[in-house]
Amino acid sequence: MGEKVGVLALQGDVREHAAALAELGAHPVEVRTPQDLSGVDALILPGGESTTMSLLLGSSGLFDPIAARLAEGMPAFGTCAGMILLATDVLDGRPDQRSFAVLDIAVRRNAFGRQVDSFETGLDVAGVVGGPVDAVFIRAPFVERAGDGVEVLAEVDGHPVLVRQGPLMAAAFHPELSDDLRVHHLFLGGL
User: Fold this and answer.
1) Which domains does the chain have, with CATH numbers?
2) pLDDT (tens digit, 9 = 90+) per residue, 73-97?
3) Cα–Cα distance between 151 and 106 in angstroms, integer?
4) Residues labelled as active-site residues
């Protein structure tokens, strides 16, 4: 492998994503400034609080450089809040909340409920062999609409929770919080 994969390091599970990437042979790069973004082959947008992340992207000066790289076709993988940041439509988002609007999905924030409603389950994921993937859902969104070009890779109760469109992938869950590296491997396999 050897790809340099940026992990947006403003909030969320940065260390856990970096560890998963390193274990799979990629070179993780923490992205905190526009300069950190240069030279990465792909970007992971981790979980966190989507409104806060949106504001931090603006104050750090990262929103526009990331938007430009995404427009150029840079591969990206958004998990939980990262899924919300990639979505074209954020249902029930705050008026000041921005997304990159590059993945043709409509997501609902906290769709599975509050923190106390968090859960873990085994997911059957298209393109992944070896049985169900361990998936951790924490105040998770889900996809209410997926565009024609969006491939649904996994669902929970009929709601898409793992999707891919071209070089973009998004998960409503936190693959970095389990020892199962197959979802990260699936993303890296597309690079």
Assistant:
1) 4-189 (3.40.50.880)
2) 999 999 998 999 999 998 876 666 7
3) 14
4) 80, 174, 176
